[in-house]
Amino acid sequence: MFTFFAQAPAQSNKETAVNNAVERLRKAMIDGNKAELEAVVSDNLSYGHSGGLIESKKEFVDKIVTGKSDFVTIELKNQTISINGKTAIVRHELHASNNDNGKPGEVHLKILLVWQKQSGQWKLLARQAIKIP
Length: 133
Known about the structure:
With 133 residues, the protein is of the alpha+beta class. The chain has a single domain (13-131), classed as Nuclear Transport Factor 2, Chain: A (Roll). Helix content is 27%, strand content 49%. It is built from three helices and six strands, in the order ααββαββββ. It has helices at 13-31, 34-40, 57-66, and strands at 41-48, 54-55, 71-84, 87-100, 103-118, 121-131. It has a six-stranded mixed sheet. Strand 5 and strand 6 form a beta hairpin. Helix 1 runs antiparallel to helix 2 (34-40). The longest helix has 19 residues, at 13-31. The chain is globular and about 40 Å long.
């Protein structure tokens, strides 16, 4: 009798590094950690919200750190990673509870992240969100 085990395809080292950068961003957004946020995003960040607002790195970081955008939990689902040279495209669903400006709520979005390898580190270059219908 033979037993077969089905395994998910192993991630490459590059995919693992990008996944780690995504996780680092997720944690920094929950913690409101300014130093971590600034370290993981590019100086040229273009951060697009589902409502059409586009923020720079400074605007994005300030909004998280001041609690204007306060994530209590963030769960990422159905993530895919595609890497081409020094560019990575990450797609996932973001399901979160928040407390923006002291008002509790929930967010359910589909996210597109563009990461770029800069000085040996994966940095978030662009993000665009759309609401899940």
